[in-house]
């Protein structure tokens, strides 16, 4: 969401209502980033208790599309099929190997080499024939030849009989067993056995289908089956005898999970699973509509959980986890030509403290299911820590609407220490060797609001989180995940040169065009002007050189703020003049953009071209989001431009994202590969000591606190918590065994957790930045600076700490 300035609404339920009088309302500020030019700002005052817009900011203030330094590069749209090399082409030059030669996968032969279709017949020289005649041996008796010929004829007859039996009897049986997939001895994928053999002898042999392609039958983990459809040469893979083996491939052109994904060359084409494990009102409206007509509607997961608990209906949340995203979604995502999923999880997937009402730990159970599903269908995961204790941005998707309490205010350091512990716990789990193929990316914090928190505090926090992850994983390619930093709304240019020689980090920026001053321009007009190409293309390329691996963690097809609760519960929309916080003249009717049943073929074609331009410009991306749930009022998704799945079903999303290659002319290409240290090669992890010292943790001050020694802080004496590992059952040759899975990668990482000092009083972690500081302040930053985490050189399996 580069350049999108939006500040949380101050919730009437908090005890800090005067906080908004002290701090500048960031909704009314402008981000001076590479993606934005200063413009006149609207003054939006959100009412207490109203849900803030998820994606607002500078972009919501400009006319139509946001200007950017990319626009000055003159990127212009072209039509698919032009001779221009697209922005993704520069990142992924077409191979002349098997995959590159078979770009057309209509025959599913991408794994086979392409050959010239012209046939040639061998010819011989007449002079060679004459030579053979001249030097031929004298004729011999034919008796021996006749005997040999008879024996050969007999052998041919015997072979014909054997082959006839094989193809008439044996081969059909094998085909029935294999179902066109790979097989292995053992139980079936759902734990059952397929037996065959001589019933008289009483012996049995068991075979299981462990892999298959388009048209094969898949047995899901719940025992049900479906027909796998993947027109791109993708193959699923699950071996019940070795359930952590990775062999699936989502498409013919994407490396299988047991092959190297070359970031910067292999494009990320992903989708978010938003609203699943961290609920949002506009994504799952049915959960929130139950309370919308009350005097105190649920506006975030905090208030939703409170109301569900009061009604004895907390099981509604787990029902949502069970049904909103399932195994079949992962198969569909691979079939859509996508290769990554970004999965937001909340901190309460690990634990809750004090009076936090969230349903704890259940989300982790479903994340582990997602890992199994991703492994089975060849998808890679970007695990994103979406919500921190106290809130890193004050928006509803951080868990609680209201104030920022991470790195800001009297509980800013305490909440940050607690958050870093959760980053450590997750890093220890996913750095274990069995997860390196399927979870290559770890977003340590989603959208910390840097303009309010401050750049110094954000950078120190990022370095400390990086060191924590590398202490858990070790350093170098193959050792744990890449560490993903959100741009914190400072823009891409601001991060150039951050942490030189850091081992495998990526910069994440979120790009939207829908929250600016509203425009009547429809998709066709925007496509004609090439809005996505001119807004984003050059900026992404430049960051790939100036910073390193850069991706777009969120974007959508929305071109205005229409959609139920896109801006927040009961907040209305600027486009139709119903926005409740400040006056906007009506630009148009939102039903034009929300009732997709009325969209004609041209409208959908324009939307698809807008999507292709966006994909081309953004290059490495995750669409927000895979699906929007149905409204209980209309029975349809009320924000259709945000749903990739619906777009595929209704015809406005590209069925093959490769069609975006070359759509935007690339006037400022990035030339791969990335430097060796950026990808875990030579020099990786060798951050200069001066850079480390300049960003030592913790900070000595915050933007609103001159000396953190005056703040209440935690002590590092708490019992270590770890995430529960999955229970994996391996079945083979008629036997079943339970595999021992771990939760902790580095046995040397034994430091305790940060917890309150028993004799001190503490503020509510969610109180807000203006609450009075309690008694019992902490030591000075220098006195309490902990021993720095140091990246490790390798990985050693470790015992599991007690949960």
From TrEMBL:
Sequence ranges assigned to domain Glycoside hydrolase family in this UniProt record = 320-514
Residues in the signal sequence? none
Q: What is its EC number?
A: 3.2.1.58
Report one GO cellular component. plasma membrane
Q: Where is this region: Disordered?
A: 109-139, 175-208, 769-803
Task: Write out the biased-composition intervals (Low complexity).
Answer: 177-206
Annotated membrane topology? Single-pass type II membrane protein
- Gene3D superfamilies to which the protein is assigned, alphabetical: Glycosidases
Q: Which GO terms describe its biological process?
A: cell wall organization; glucan catabolic process
Group of enzyme by EC:
hydrolase
Q: Name one GO molecular function term.
A: glucan exo-1,3-beta-glucosidase activity
The subcellular localization recorded is: Cell membrane
InterPro entries assigned to the protein according to its UniProt record, in alphabetical order? GH, Glyco_hydro_5, Glycosyl_hydrolase_5
The source's superkingdom equals Eukaryota
The membrane spanning regions, by residue number, are 145-169
**Keywords on record:** Cell membrane, Cell wall biogenesis/degradation, Glycoprotein, Glycosidase, Hydrolase, Membrane, Signal-anchor, Transmembrane, Transmembrane helix
Q: Name one Pfam family in it.
A: Cellulase
Question: Where does this protein chiefly localize?
Answer: membrane
Task: Write down the chemical reaction(s) this protein catalyses.
Answer: Successive hydrolysis of beta-D-glucose units from the non-reducing ends of (1->3)-beta-D-glucans, releasing alpha-glucose
Family indicated by similarity: Belongs to the glycosyl hydrolase 5 (cellulase A) family.
User: Tell me, what does this protein do in biology?
Assistant: Glucosidase involved in the degradation of cellulosic biomass. Active on lichenan.
Q: State the name under which the record lists this protein.
A: glucan 1,3-beta-glucosidase
């Amino acid at each position: 969401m580069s350049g999108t300035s939006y500040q949380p609404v101050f919730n009437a339920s908090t005890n800090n209502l005067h906080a908004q009088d002290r701090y500048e309302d960031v909704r009314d500020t402008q981000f001076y980033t590479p993606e934005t030019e200063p413009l006149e700002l609207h003054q939006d005052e959100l009412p207490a208790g109203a849900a803030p817009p998820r994606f607002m900011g500078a972009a919501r203030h400009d006319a139509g599309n946001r200007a950017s330094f990319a626009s000055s590069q003159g990127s212009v749209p072209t039509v698919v099929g032009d001779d221009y090399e697209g922005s993704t082409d520069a990142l992924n030059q077409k191979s002349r190997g098997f995959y590159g030669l078979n770009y057309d996968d209509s025959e599913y032969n991408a794994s086979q080499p392409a050959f010239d279709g012209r046939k040639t017949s061998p010819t011989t020289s007449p002079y060679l024939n004459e030579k053979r005649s001249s030097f031929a041996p004298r004729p011999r008796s034919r008796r021996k030849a006749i005997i040999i010929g008879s024996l050969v004829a007999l052998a041919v007859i015997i072979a014909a009989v054997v082959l006839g039996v094989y193809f008439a009897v044996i081969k059909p049986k094998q085909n029935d067993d294999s179902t066109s997939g790979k097989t292995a001895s053992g139980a079936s994928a759902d734990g059952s056995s397929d037996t065959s053999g001589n019933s008289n002898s009483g012996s049995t042999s068991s075979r299981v289908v462990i892999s298959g392609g388009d048209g094969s039958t898949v047995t899901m983990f719940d025992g049900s089956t479906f027909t796998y459809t993947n027109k791109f040469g993708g193959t699923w893979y699950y071996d019940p005898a070795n359930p952590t083996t990775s062999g699936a491939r989502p498409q013919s052109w994407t490396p299988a999970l047991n092959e190297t994904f070359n970031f910067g060359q292999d494009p990320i084409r992903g989708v978010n699973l938003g609203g699943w494990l961290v609920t949002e009102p506009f994504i799952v409206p049915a959960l929130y509509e139950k309370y919308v007509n009350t005097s105190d509607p649920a506006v975030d997961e905090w208030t939703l959980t409170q109301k569900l608990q009061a009604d004895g209906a907390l099981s509604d949340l787990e029902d949502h986890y069970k049904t909103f995203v399932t195994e079949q979604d992962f198969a569909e995502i691979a079939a859509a030509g996508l290769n990554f999923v970004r999965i937001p999880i909340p901190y309460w997937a690990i634990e809750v403290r004090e009076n936090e009402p969230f349903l704890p730990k259940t989300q982790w159970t479903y994340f582990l299911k997602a890992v199994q599903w991703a492994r089975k269908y060849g998808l890679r995961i970007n695990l994103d820590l979406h919500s921190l204790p106290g809130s890193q941005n004050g928006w509803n998707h951080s868990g609680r609407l209201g104030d920022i309490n991470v790195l800001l205010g009297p509980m800013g350091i305490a909440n940050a220490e607690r958050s870093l512990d959760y980053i450590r716990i997750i890093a220890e789990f996913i750095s274990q060797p069995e997860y390196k193929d399927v979870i290559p990316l770890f977003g340590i914090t989603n959208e910390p609001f840097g303009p309010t928190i401050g750049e110094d505090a954000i950078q120190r926090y990022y370095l400390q989180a990086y060191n924590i992850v590398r202490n858990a994983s070790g350093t170098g390619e193959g050792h744990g995940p890449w560490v993903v930093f959100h741009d914190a709304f400072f823009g891409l240019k601001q991060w150039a040169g951050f942490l030189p020689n850091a081992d495998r980090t990526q910069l994440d920026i979120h790009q939207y065009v829908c929250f600016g001053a509203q425009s009547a321009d429809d998709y066709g007009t925007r496509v004609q002007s090439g809005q996505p190409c001119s807004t984003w293309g050059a900026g992404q390329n430049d960051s790939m050189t100036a910073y390193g691996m850069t991706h777009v963690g969120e974007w959508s097809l929305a071109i205005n703020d229409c959609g139920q609760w896109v801006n927040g519960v009961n907040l209305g929309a600027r486009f139709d003049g119903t926005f409740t916080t400040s006056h906007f003249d009506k630009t148009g009717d939102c039903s034009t953009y929300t009732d997709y049943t009325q969209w004609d073929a041209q409208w959908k074609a324009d939307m698809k071209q807008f999507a292709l331009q966006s994909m081309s410009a953004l290059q490495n991306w995750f669409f927000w989001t895979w699906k929007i749930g149905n409204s209980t009022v209309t029975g349809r998704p009320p924000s259709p431009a945000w749903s990739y799945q619906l777009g595929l079903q209704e015809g406005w999303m590209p069925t093959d994202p490769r069609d975006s290659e070359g759509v935007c002319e690339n006037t400022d290409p990035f030339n791969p590969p990335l430097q060796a240290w950026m990808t875990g090669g030579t020099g990786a992890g060798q951050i200069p000591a001066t850079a480390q010292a300049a960003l030592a943790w913790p900070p000595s001050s915050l933007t609103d606190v001159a000396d953190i020694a005056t703040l209440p802080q935690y002590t590092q004496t708490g019992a270590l918590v770890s995430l529960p590992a999955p229970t994996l059952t391996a079945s083979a040759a008629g036997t079943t065994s339970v595999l021992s899975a771990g939760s902790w990668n580095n046995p040397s990482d034994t430091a305790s957790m940060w917890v309150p000092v028993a004799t001190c009083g503490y503020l509510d972690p969610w109180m807000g930045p203006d609450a009075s500081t309690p008694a019992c302040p902490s030591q000075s930053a220098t006195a309490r600076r902990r021993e720095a985490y140091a990246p490790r050189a390798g990985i050693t399996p470790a015992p599991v700490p007690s949960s």
